[in-house]
Design goal:
mainly beta, five-stranded mixed β-sheet, Tachylectin-2, Chain A, four-stranded antiparallel β-sheet
């Protein structure tokens, strides 16, 4: 991918260092449901669909408790910048079709299954503990059918949470990073699947031969690199008033056999827009996509708004979804 840079001796995947150096703020993509404390939008991803020659975006909508993550929306765009909602489901409606009492919706991922052409939608749900539900549809506009729960709290490292997946398909193999919480530590866990439905959990990867810190959640996108699968995105390493916050952009090569990650790049995320809090710029949710039509990289960030956020925290901050672009020469 992006082999035009090989003349510079940049082989394999486009270096994450280049993305950070060349990025520029593009626009606000989605505003929160309102501007009251605790109102957020984001926690999803963006994919390109050849059939419509455009983009699909999934995002959860949230308000402060007791509403919390009250709905999930799917949006369509022809240019990756201007999105219109085409589907919406509330937590009550989702609970009804799943046969569960869904108290909140959080991180979600949309992907197209290469074997069937069906669209898969992974949705994190709070059912007195966070797990991840899978739905399928012929078209992202619905109707959606529930396949079942694909991430359950069944391992010792995920007894409280198995949610907020990052899903990609590398060489035909489904891969997933997800948030695993054992009640004391929050880590990024790794799972693989042949069909996107039945997942094999590989555990919590080591980083450079060492255990993950007590709090680390990676959220971004998975790519194929010359050295193996590569993660690029934001890293939650901080908790502020109960809310996980990301202040760094990181990249890792993933070794599936050893269940280990090798750090490629890690640096501070510097806000370049007026829509990011200067001290705590992002909630950590991120999606990165190659826009082939316009020869650029698009980076979608759930940003903590500096004007309406009077205090950072899970009950008080205001998040909107913004986009950066990286023009490719």
């Amino acid at each position: 991918m992006w082999s035009r840079y090989s003349g510079r001796r940049w082989e394999g995947l486009l270096p994450p260092q280049y993305l950070l150096r060349r990025r520029r703020f593009l626009r606000v993509v989605l505003n929160p449901p309102d501007y009251n404390p605790g109102s957020w939008i984001g926690a999803g991803n963006v994919i390109f669909d050849d059939a419509i020659e455009g983009f699909w975006l999934v995002a959860r909508l949230r308000r402060a408790p007791p509403a919390r993550g009250y709905a999930l929306g799917i949006y369509r765009s022809s240019d990756g910048e201007h999105f219109d909602q085409t589907f919406r489901i509330t937590k009550e409606e989702l609970g009804e079709i799943a046969g569960l009492e869904v108290k909140s919706i959080e991180g979600s991922q949309l992907i197209q299954d290469p074997r069937t052409g069906m669209f898969y939608l992974y949705v994190s749900i709070d059912i007195d503990g966070w797990e991840t539900l899978l739905l399928k549809a012929d078209d992202p506009r619905g109707p959606w059918e529930v396949i079942g729960t694909v991430l359950r709290r069944e391992k010792s490292y995920e007894v409280e949470e198995a949610r907020d997946p990052v899903v990609g398909i590398i060489d035909g193999l489904y891969m997933m990073f997800y948030k695993a919480n054992d009640g004391k530590k929050v880590n990024t866990a790794l799972a693989i699947s042949q069909d996107g439905v039945k997942w094999r959990k590989l555990g919590v990867p080591m980083i450079n031969g060492h255990p993950q810190p007590d709090y680390l959640q990676l959220c971004g996108s998975l790519f194929s690199g010359s050295l193996g699968p590569v993660f690029m995105g934001l890293a939650r390493r901080h908790i502020v008033s109960g809310c996980g916050i990301a202040k760094s952009f990181e990249a890792y090569v993933i070794d599936l056999r050893q269940v280990e990650m090798m750090e490629v790049f890690r640096t501070e995320w510097r806000p370049l827009s007026p829509y990011e809090h200067k001290e705590w710029p992002t909630h950590g949710y991120c999606s990165i996509i190659h826009d082939l039509k316009r020869n650029r990289i698009l980076m979608y960030i759930e940003a903590i708004d500096p004007e309406y956020t009077k205090e950072v925290g899970w009950r008080t901050q205001v998040d909107r979804l913004i986009a950066y672009e990286v023009p490719l020469e």
